[in-house]
């Protein structure tokens, strides 16, 4: 397949509205105590034990990103959280991400581009789950070294220091391991921002354009189905609540990176090692972007 015959993954208005409402209703429901099932790529069963493996990224087709950024008049990219059914008519729901372009007047210009359904590739998910378990049980720990060589220049506006990005990635990674091996909950507090429950983030167009400069043009032209990633992270900070109290807080965030370790054939997802999925230590030379504004209030 080449770009001329590429078909993007798009939602219609009705489905988008339904799935976005499902996210808000679930995340803000007082009865919701654990979000981990919505981020689960696979449950590995060994005897009487179950190991819940959470995603660390969502993937978009390179051709979809190219179309999104080709939207005439676009000035911002909106990233919105949704809960998408596992299949038509299914009550089982999974976290997904929708991207769309808006102009300077906040008018939507593009279609709703949706991330790829990671829950459908069960063979890849099981292989990854077993790699994760083996990797951790071998005594390995989170490795944040060697992400970006100090000698590599950071030429793009909006880039954030790799040490900061890796802190956010590490917090998500550690929370995921707590779910996998200790049965911990992924509490809704991670999406309860200063202005209410997070519906997503708003990015400057450049935050998506700059990382794409690292992607070979031949890949987008000749392999538009190639998967490129937006990673998940947790922003850890001390929040000053209305009473003046300092509250330790972790909030879900998105890291626009398009890491090189996910580029190439889309089949890489099926053969990815645990190290590739759980760290970005092999992403070499990639630059991180996350100078986004939360929605709300910037919706």
List its traits.
single chain, 299 residues, alpha+beta, six-stranded antiparallel sheet, three-stranded antiparallel sheet, 8 helices, 28% strand
Helices, by number, come to 8
Strand content: 25-35%
Determine the fraction of residues in helical runs and give it as a percent range: 25-40%
Which structural category fits the helices and strands? Answer: alpha+beta
Shape designation? globular
Strand order of the largest sheet: 1-7-6-5-11-15
Characterization of the model:
- The protein has 8 helices and 15 strands.
- The radius of gyration is 19 Å and the shape is globular.
- It has a 6-stranded antiparallel beta sheet with strand order 1-7-6-5-11-15, with helices on both faces. It has a 3-stranded antiparallel beta sheet with strand order 4-12-13. A two-stranded antiparallel sheet has the order 2-3.
- About 16% of the residues have low confidence.
- The protein has one domain.
- It has 299 residues and is α+β, with helices and mostly antiparallel strands.
Furnish the topology, listing elements before pairings.
Elements: E1 10-11, H1 13-28, E2 40-46, E3 49-54, E4 57-61, H2 62-69, E5 76-85, E6 93-102, E7 112-114, H3 122-137, E8 159-160, H4 162-182, E9 192-193, E10 196-197, E11 200-204, H5 205-212, H6 217-222, E12 227-240, E13 246-256, H7 268-271, H8 274-278, E14 288-289, E15 293-295
Antiparallel strand pairs: 1-7, 2-3, 4-12, 5-6, 5-11, 6-7, 8-14, 9-10, 11-15, 12-13
């Amino acid at each position: 397949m080449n770009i001329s015959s590429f078909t993007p993954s798009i939602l219609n208005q009705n489905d988008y509205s339904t799935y976005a409402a499902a996210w808000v209703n679930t995340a803000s429901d007082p009865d919701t105590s654990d979000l981990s099932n919505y981020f689960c790529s696979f449950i590995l069963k060994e005897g009487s034990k179950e190991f819940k493996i959470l995603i660390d990224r969502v993937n978009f087709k390179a051709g979809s990103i190219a179309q999104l950024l080709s939207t005439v008049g676009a000035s911002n990219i909106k990233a919105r959280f949704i809960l998408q059914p596992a299949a038509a008519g299914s009550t089982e729901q999974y976290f997904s991400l929708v991207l769309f372009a808006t102009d300077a007047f906040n008018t939507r210009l593009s279609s709703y581009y949706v991330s790829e359904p990671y829950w459908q590739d069960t063979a890849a998910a099981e292989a990854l789950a077993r790699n994760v378990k083996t990797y951790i049980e071998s005594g390995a720990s989170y490795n944040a070294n060697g992400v970006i060589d100090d000698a590599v220049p950071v030429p793009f506006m909006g880039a954030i220091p790799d040490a900061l990005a890796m802190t956010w990635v590490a917090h998500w990674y550690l929370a995921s391991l707590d779910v996998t091996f200790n049965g911990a909950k992924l509490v809704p507090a991670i999406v309860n921002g200063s202005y209410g429950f997070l519906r997503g983030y708003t990015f400057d167009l450049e935050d998506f354009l700059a990382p794409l400069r690292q992607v070979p043009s031949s890949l987008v032209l000749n392999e538009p189905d190639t998967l490129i990633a937006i990673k998940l992270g947790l922003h850890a900070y001390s929040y000053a609540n209305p009473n003046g109290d300092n509250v330790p807080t972790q909030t879900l965030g998105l890291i626009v990176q398009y890491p090189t370790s996910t580029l190439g054939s889309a089949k890489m997802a099926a053969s990815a090692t645990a190290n590739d999925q759980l760290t970005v230590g092999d992403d070499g030379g990639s630059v991180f972007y996350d100078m986004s504004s939360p929605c709300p209030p910037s919706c």
